[in-house]
Amino acid sequence: MVSSVVAKLLGPSLAQGLKLWIPSGATWGGVCGVTLVYLTDWRLILDYVPYVNGKFSEKD
């Protein structure tokens, strides 16, 4: 359904080209997300990940 809407808006050849770029876009999005976590306060972001959150519990 989405591909038919994109094909109508952009044209069939451009819609086919966009389908080829989806894996690359997902990969770069993941790389940018990991880089953002690395460059920011990683502890603040990883506190929301359940598995990692238990590793850093502070016992007073």
UniProtKB/TrEMBL annotation:
Record field: transmembrane: 20-39
Pfam family membership, one: UCR_6-4kD
Record keywords: Membrane, Transmembrane, Transmembrane helix
Gene3D superfamilies in alphabetical order: 1.20.5.220
GO terms (BP aspect): mitochondrial electron transport, ubiquinol to cytochrome c
Gene Ontology CC entries for this record: mitochondrial inner membrane
Keyword Transmembrane: yes
Record-linked SUPFAM superfamilies: Subunit XI (6.4 kDa protein) of cytochrome bc1 complex (Ubiquinol-cytochrome c reductase)
PANTHER family, per database record: CYTOCHROME B-C1 COMPLEX SUBUNIT 10, UBIQUINOL-CYTOCHROME C REDUCTASE COMPLEX 6.4 KD PROTEIN
Protein name: Cytochrome b-c1 complex subunit 10
Gene: LOC116950842
